Amino acid sequence: MTSPAVVLQPLFRRAPTLLKPPVLRTVRYFGVSSVMSEKLKPAARVAGRRQDVWSIINEAAAASPKQPIVNMGQGFFGYNPPEFILNAAKQALDRVECNQYSPTKGRPRLRQAIADAYSPFWGRKMDPETEVTITTGANEGMLSAFMAFIEPGDEVIIFEPFFDQYISNIEMPGGKIVYVPMHPPKEGGSKTLSASEWTIDFDELERAITPRTKMLVINTPHNPVGKVYSKEELQKIADLCLKNQIIILSDEVYDRLFYVPFTRIATLSPEVEKITITVGSAGKNFYATGWRVGWLMGPAELIQYVAAAHTRICYSSVSPLQEACAIGFEQAEEQGFWDDCVRDMQAKMSRFNAIWDELGIPYSEPEGGYFVMANLSKVTLPRDYPFPPHVAERPRDFKLAWFLIQEFGVAAIPPTEFYTEENAHIAQDYLRFAVCKPDDVLEMAKERLRGLKRYIQE
Ligand SMILES: Cc1ncc(COP(=O)(O)O)c(C=O)c1O
């Protein structure tokens, strides 16, 4: 019998003559220019040409003379989940079965807990076996949904500003994104108005629909605008989707943080429910964005394919933290946790937004979620300010963000990153601040932002 080494040897020896010498050329990969073999070149889907907003902001923060930076940019919590959920996670780690693979659709206890928690909103008993599937965060859930339904060339409608991960999630299976902008209130630069004043032009939305439109993504409560879509707006969107048989992907990761009545689009009618997949996130619900537990709910006919895609992508999700989230859902109501969430976040919103009222800077009063968009059109940036070239070439909000980090040590996110270039001008005077931070951090941010006074023109 020939030994494996003998079989392999000739191949190894022949290889140099069979292979062409590698082609070397200069490529840009995440903004880094280097000489790379053609074979090592990344696929277009990951080879971003522009520096993304997170690296620009992090780089600016690291370079700022004002240390430590008050980071109100990224939407992670500056405090821990409540004790009853943390304890559940710690106890889960001591259980043998919680440290092993979960079923691909998720742990039965968590699916049951989610079905029980959401059935009252749906007005009927949800089936945890067929209508709920657990994912590795909402983000992987949405990737699974697109992987399940999008063929190359299929179109997906999203509203601007969008959650940035939608883009690659749609493009990976070959989807084509069709953008429809949300329009801010005309007086947004001079008056504080409700985030509800950011509106969709429904004619514009209808014109965006083509025979290839397969899915539409809606996000309510909305990141970054803070809008909670009204029942009437949702009905109009749903009617268009029903008429054109478009699957609705409703991203409701901030569903426990609403300060006005909140409607879930799937609950509008049994017909709408049939075409809707609802997205949830334990990270957002339980202040644990690093746990990476999310879920999708919807009719069995849709969920089965999403669950199949999820199995291909990551097989199953983190077991002990699924168990902890199950206990979180089981106990949240009796612990009064959902009411606490709303009360605490609303208090943080008011605490932080007091600085804008003090400075006379208008903002979109959030109806939900934990982001606020301040309109800084009244802020005059110093002439000849030394912005680095990669910031100077971006819209005004990038310059505002850079300036705030360098001069005051406060990090916020420029929202034009969540627009196409064509529509970026819509949001170039806004900055997004995340208020899910401890109160002393919010106070420090306010104190620093008082320095803006001398740059404000009435
Ligand atoms: C609108 C929206 N959808 C989805 C997500 C992702 O949620 P997860 O952390 O559960 O993946 C985020 C996170 O910031 C978000 O803002």
From TrEMBL:
<dbReference type="InterPro" id="IPR004839">
    <property type="entry name" value="Aminotransferase_I/II_large"/>
</dbReference>
<dbReference type="GO" id="GO:0030170">
    <property type="term" value="F:pyridoxal phosphate binding"/>
</dbReference>
<dbReference type="InterPro" id="IPR015424">
    <property type="entry name" value="PyrdxlP-dep_Trfase"/>
</dbReference>
<feature type="domain" description="Aminotransferase class I/classII large">
    <location>
        <begin position="69"/>
        <end position="447"/>
    </location>
</feature>
<dbReference type="InterPro" id="IPR051326">
    <property type="entry name" value="Kynurenine-oxoglutarate_AT"/>
</dbReference>
<keyword id="KW-0808">Transferase</keyword>
<dbReference type="GO" id="GO:0005739">
    <property type="term" value="C:mitochondrion"/>
</dbReference>
<dbReference type="InterPro" id="IPR015421">
    <property type="entry name" value="PyrdxlP-dep_Trfase_major"/>
</dbReference>
<dbReference type="Pfam" id="PF00155">
    <property type="entry name" value="Aminotran_1_2"/>
</dbReference>
<keyword id="KW-0032">Aminotransferase</keyword>
<keyword id="KW-0663">Pyridoxal phosphate</keyword>
<dbReference type="GO" id="GO:0016212">
    <property type="term" value="F:kynurenine-oxoglutarate transaminase activity"/>
</dbReference>
<comment type="similarity">
    <text>Belongs to the class-I pyridoxal-phosphate-dependent aminotransferase family.</text>
</comment>
<protein>
    <submittedName>
        <fullName>Kynurenine--oxoglutarate transaminase BNA3</fullName>
    </submittedName>
</protein>
<dbReference type="InterPro" id="IPR015422">
    <property type="entry name" value="PyrdxlP-dep_Trfase_small"/>
</dbReference>
